Amino acid sequence: MKPLYCTADIRAVERAAAATLPEGALMRRAGQAAAALARTLLAPAASSASAAAATPILVLAGPGNNGGDALEAAALLAEAGLPVTVLHSAPAGAQSPERTAAWQRAQRSAARLIALTSAEAQSLMQFEVQAARRTNAQSGRQDTAQPVMQDDGQAMTQPARPRDVQPAARSRCDSRQSRADGWGLVIDGLFGIGLTRPITGAARDLVQAVNRLGCPVLALDVPSGLDADTGAVVGPNGVALRASHTLTFIGDKPGLHTNEGRDHAGVVAVAPLLAEQDRHGDAALPSLPPARMQLNQEALFRPHLHARRHSGHKGTYGSVAVIGGAHGMRGAPILSARTALHAGAGRVYVLYPDDALPADSGQPELMCRLAEGYDLDQATLAIGPGLGDSAMATGLLKRAIASSSALLIDADALNLLARDTSLQTAVARRSDSAGRVGQTGHTDAASRAGATAQAGHTPQPAQPAHPAHPARPVQPAHPAPARPGRHDRPAHATVLTPHPLEAARLLGVEVAAVQADRVAAARTLAARLQAVVVLKGSGTVIAAPDGDCVINPTGNPALATAGTGDVLSGLCSALLAQGCPPWPAALAAVWLHGAAADHLVETGIGPVGMTAGELIPAIRRLLNDQVNGMVNRQVS
Question: What are the CA-CA distances from residue 547 to residues 292, 321, 457 (Å)?
Answer without folding.
Answer: 8, 29, 17
